[in-house]
Here is the input.
Amino acid sequence: MIIKQPVGVKATNAMEDVAVVQELINDALSKKKLAHSTLIVDGLFGPATNAAIQHVQERIVKLERPDGVVDPDGVTIRVMRKLVSPPDGAADTTPGKANKERTVKLRKNAYPAISQYTESILRFAMELADVHELDVSSTLRTISDQARIMFDDNEAARRAGKTVREHRGYGYGPVGQAVDRIYLDNVGKITDEEIRRKMEEEIRCSLKLGKRTSRHCVEDSAYRHNNILDVPYSGIRPRDRRDEFEAVLISLANSFNKRKYSDESVEIEGIDAHPRLRLIDKVIVERSCWHLEIPQDGKEIPELRA
Here is the structure.
């Protein structure tokens, strides 16, 4: 687990680096059994990550003056890496070694909604890219979950004296903006519970019109036909297989965003990618994750050539 640039207050805070630090912090605090809220590994540096860095520096690294900064080759990251790395003699899980088990794990905040068929496609992609472990950070988001998240975002923004867009670091489209307006129009006039119910109703009405507030917020029945999930860049191991894994996802996709790729088939050793297999309907390369939409149509998953 390496970072290329510093992470911390007034540091560069590249999303990939922040995500690595967040995961290291979670693992280090868990190893030491130190009480601390689990960080969401989203690649965004904020007060929670800042506090967690200083907590690690004080309790684990034992710095006299925690500075809240993790340098690429500094003592903080070296101590965390040493703490969470496998002990000597542990099974070697590097590419090409004997351990070929492919593990798909749901992170703490991910609802257990993906199907076995989806897991099989993920494992197929992992095998092609020689990835042995993969995390899923987000799956189905219920209407009530979506309303709660958006309500909490608005509350936090109001307390911080910011707009909700400034607080989130990104903006919703017109459907989400309409939900946010319900909070802004009603805060202080009706109870919080009533505001959340109104937000839920707006989200529900939008879904009936075929419009999503967020990519993950769909009805259960729709999710059963089309699994939606995010795989964070920090969630694949070995991490140096990221480019290979991304290329495999693209080779299996029916459509993908074209910021990085042409619309041509991607050559992947071990499978015939012409035409693309189209096991995945959509791949979107986000700032910190791959967003996947996988139809549950039972297409045959081919075997790798020996």
Observations:
- Residues 103-140+219-295 form one domain.
- The chain has ten helices and nine strands.
- The longest helix spans residues 143-160.
- The longest strand covers residues 226-232.
